[in-house]
TrEMBL record:
This is tRNA threonylcarbamoyladenosine biosynthesis protein TsaE. Belongs to the TsaE family. GO terms for molecular function: ATP binding; metal ion binding; transferase activity. Keywords: ATP-binding, Cytoplasm, Magnesium, Metal-binding, Nucleotide-binding, Transferase, tRNA processing. One of its GO terms (biological process) is tRNA threonylcarbamoyladenosine modification. InterPro entries: P-loop_NTPase, T6A_TsaE. It comes from Confluentibacter flavum. Pfam families: TsaE. It is found in: Cytoplasm. The keyword ATP-binding applies.
Length: 149
């Protein structure tokens, strides 16, 4: 799935995205300032949470309460060693039944052992953003084709 969007459409984008994901683990890729946190804010609201969303600054993960579920919001920008992730119990988060939404997932992509959806955000010259969603199956297929697995 691919969507080109502006900030005014962010809630509609979140809706389409959540309707198309196949897991509750979302790896959100994209450069600094591209709109990862903004998108996650819209997703968290869509899932029924009234909690304030900001990138985790002092911790690796923020936790939000939504309708009958929890959302774990990770920002791995400052992670230097996967050991830090094991120390916070990353596996327990990923294996839980709750949502895990992860900014800067490059740091963990090699250790994720649960199914996930990959979201790529790119800034376009006209300031719009392109969102690409790759479901787990599609993603695995692409990975195998390019020999990355
Ligand atoms: N689709 C969009 N169109 C225009 N501006 C956007 C869009 N998405 C996000 N922005 C703006 O980009 C800026 C950075 O967004 P942010 O979510 O903090 O980026 P990131 O988390 O990727 O570093 C914010 O000012 C936000 O309003
Ligand atoms: Mg951010």
């Amino acid at each position: 799935m691919e969507i080109i969007y502006n900030i005014e459409n962010i809630n509609e984008v979140a809706k389409q995205l959540i309707a198309n994901v196949t897991t509750k683990t979302l790896l959100v890729y994209g450069d600094m300032g591209v709109g990862k946190t903004t998108l996650i804010k819209a997703i968290v609201k869509l899932l029924g949470s009234h909690d304030d969303v900001s990138s985790p600054t002092f911790s690796i993960v923020n936790e939000y309460e939504a309708n009958n579920t929890l959302i774990y919001h990770f920002d791995l920008y400052r992670i230097k060693d996967v050991e830090e992730l094991y120390n916070v119990g990353i596996e327990d988060y990923l294996f839980s039944d709750n949502w895990s939404i992860i900014e800067w997932p490059e740091k963990i992509e090699n250790i994720v052992e649960t199914p996930y959806d990959r979201i790529d955000l790119v800034l376009n010259p006209d300031n719009s953003r392109t969102l690409k969603l790759k479901n787990k199956n599609e993603f695995n297929l692409i990975n195998m084709q390019s020999g990355n697995i």
